[in-house]
Amino acid sequence: MQPIAGHAFFHGPEAVKRYFGSLGIQYIAYTDFERALTIYNRGHWLANRSSPEAIWRFEAPYFLDLMDNLEQLASSSNRVSVFGAQRLVHLD
Fold first, then answer.
1. Mean pLDDT of all residues in the chain?
2. Per-residue pLDDT reduced to its tens digit, 19-55
3. Residue 25 vs residues 20, 37, 60: alpha-carbon distances, Å
């Protein structure tokens, strides 16, 4: 989930926005995390917080943090397009 140094995990939505901006990313597209298929589904990651597999327990907080931050960015942006379960957020 992180192509270069300077990660924004656990620093809130504005840090995520700055991080993507530093990479030249202006738009984020995602599927509603309540409706998405397994790996992008919030329920999947909530359950994995207590998985018997260590890798899933380790990854779960990162996926959930990114999901929360993307949803907060979408709710605070004036430039969000919704297409069914799909969201396109302009990170202005």
1. 92
2. 999 999 999 999 999 999 989 999 999 999 999 999 9
3. 5, 24, 24
pTM score, two decimals? 0.89
Rg (CA), the chain: 14
Using an 8 Å Cβ cutoff, are 9 and 62 in contact? yes
Identify the burial level of 84 via C-beta atoms within 10 angstroms of its C-beta, where 0-12 means exposed, 13-18 middle and 19 or more buried. exposed
CB proximity list for 39: less than 8 A, separation 6 or greater: none
Contact between 4 and 20 (Cβ < 8 Å): no
Cα–Cα distance measured from residue 55 to residue 17, given in angstroms and rounded to the nearest whole number = 27
Per the CB < 8 A criterion, the answer to whether 92 and 38 are in contact is no
